[in-house]
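User: My collaborator sent over this chain with a note saying "see what the structure looks like." That's all I know about it. Can you take a look?
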Amino acid sequence: MKSVCTLCPRRCGAIREEALPGGFCRSPLLPQVARCAPHFGEEPCIAGPHGTGAVFFTGCNLRCVFCQNAAISRGEGGRPVTVPQLRDMLLALRDQGVDSIDLVTGAHFIPAVAEALRGLDLGIPVVWNSSGYESAETLRMLEGLVQVYMPDYKYSSREAALRYSAAADYPQAAQAAIREMFRQVGPAVQDESGLLKSGVLIRHLILPGRLEDARDAIDFAADEFPAGSVLFSLMSQYTPMPGLEAFPELQRPITREENAALIHYMRVRGLAGFWQEGEAATGDMIPAWDLTGVCQN
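Assistant: Without extra context I'll predict from the sequence alone. Here is the result:
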């Protein structure tokens, strides 16, 4: 099976084959998974006390230069799985007692993921955890299948988006995608324990020196949606990774002063959600890409 790919905003038109990588995302048509296991590194409303069942897909249509998951986001590692195998993996996670299912960076596999979810009654929220660089039209394939959307809003600056992700149109694409996500699932609904049952949680990873992008992300969430209807997560965990010699401005963690200023701004704008304090910039949250929980072919 082959497909001319126009799934994401790049619309690169690459020929993607069932098991052979292709396109900017360097991915085959079949989902390729590096890890499928309970994960405790997400926000408390997603992870809950029992963790979220995280499926880490390989490849990415953005491939940010600073990606902490670069070992898999460049399309390397992982194992291809069929739709029935992916469905079995999701059921196995559910049976381990996780509080949600966390589908991580799967935009380039949406048709197969949607097929796996269709008719599947997991009884726990399905979370779409993404870069935000997605086509609203493609996201409609997930309507009624995903209960929680957790997109990044990485940049408001076309210059930064081009420099770090080769995607000058990222701000406009991400805003359109997030609006579509909200249209599908509506205002955030949490249960009595704080778990997010449905809704949108917008994430922003603070980059060194790019406080304006962070303020713009906060403003977008506060201005675009009714008060209290979306959650926001401000992350100061940026960790400089190897290979950033051409980007000297990215070769340091976030300062306490930068983080404190943005936490204050988020509070001033009245956004509900989460932020990180203290020394969040470590590599401790990067999982082992060892094929844990991935079905054998």
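A starting point for your reply to your collaborator: The chain has a mean pLDDT of 93.
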